[in-house]
Specification:
By secondary structure, this protein is mostly helical. The chain has 24 helices and no strands. 76% of the residues lie in helices and 0% in strands. It is a multi-pass membrane protein.
Length: 519
Amino acid sequence: MSTIETDNKGAEASISVAQADSIESDANKNVKHFKYDKDLRRQRLANGPSAKDIFTIFCAGFALISDGYQNNVMSMLNKVFALKYPKVFNADMSTNVSNASLIATIFGQVVIGLTADYIGRKWSIITGSVFLVVGSAMCAASHGVTVEGMFWMLIISRGVTGFGIGAEYPSSSVSASEAANETVKRRGGAFILCTNLPLSFGGPFALIIFLIVNKICGPKHLEALWRTMFAIGCFWPLSVFYFRLKLATSELYKKNAIKKTTAPYWLALKYYWPRLLGTCLSWFLYDFVTFPNGIFSSGIISNVIKDKNDLEKIAEWNLLLGVLALPGVFVGAWLNDRIGRKYTIMIGFSGYIVFGLIVGIAYHKVKKITGLFIVLYGLMMSMGNLGPGDGMGLVSSESFATPIRGTCYGLSAAIGKVGAVVGTKSFTPIQKNLGNQWTFIIAAICGLAGVLVTLILIPHLNDDDLMEEDVKFKNYLIDNGWKGHFGTEEYDVEQDSDFTDVDSTKSEDIVEKPQTHKI
């Protein structure tokens, strides 16, 4: 922690020195520093939300319903495949199909996270939409010479879909955060309602669609059921594809992107490593719990009801579970704007401890009362949405400067998906070797670990201006001798009214040599 504190203090010091009449600024005229103007922030907020920013936030987040749909569609289809193809769709095949999407999501998050910082947010979002549409269509059309061959085709198709899901996370969330920063005073709630709410709503939406399609197809046409469910996944990204083509580039990205040279990742890591470690670990713990509980929720519920093969009954209880988890999104959005991100995430992880231990310790008694079991299970998932579900995307989009925001967000989310893969892979062995109750006890243990990680490593943020973080990071790079260009080609930093050239008599953006400030 000492390294980053020193670096942050150095960055803050450089701003204060730049604003004052520094003796050393006269001695070295070749150094360019930037200062943060609070008055311009007030002016932007005073004008109120602009139509452009609202449009960007909406279009960036709306199609995340599709991501939530794709993440949760396998919950019921796992049960459908087991009934339709019992000889082939065993535990290993179920895990392979589920993990194909998760592993591809990891690649999508890392690759598109990097490219979002280089080619821009807009084209990264469009790339994600294309992969989602193509992947969903491939899933619906999966065929093979044998049933096993069909499932391997489905695994590949789920991989394509997963890459699209992964692409959506950094590109859409970062774009929404930067747009919200322009004119929305309480950015946290707006960001959550446009990102995590669609993601969380995707689960109940998938179950509602399943109940409708299941009623139409009936138990004798299960193949038509699962193909239709996959095909419907194309709808949401297609519905906003045209509008995403019209997205505007945020002012933050125009002013602060590093496009002409390679971003100084080593310096960025030295500066941000505690925050990056915190977002990665917290997201890992959250996804380790929430993803297997989402994917295998049908199996969990079937263990506590009488007819384990009644698809409609399982889907109805699953829908109730998903609906119970939604209020956490709204409460979390409200809390993030009042008490900040850090404490809200800690409250959410604490919910895992409380409800995980209640269900885990009293499992054999609670499972006999299906309604009570679903309510407690739903409250545990709701606390996950309230805390890390709402907070991790928000914190990851606010903790890092614009030039590396997509990369750090993508890496944090990717480590989270590693947790999802590990959790999915270990879920069935835990149930078989330790008992069903241990899935909840381990969730409580992860909740405790999440509280500690958040307390130590996650910064206390509460709608701070992202522009100010950019100033600190850019001055840190300058003080460490980095020579490069900030801003896109169409943006002239010299005309930037938010960043003032204080220490330099030159108009170039290239830093000639670093300046050492003595405070």
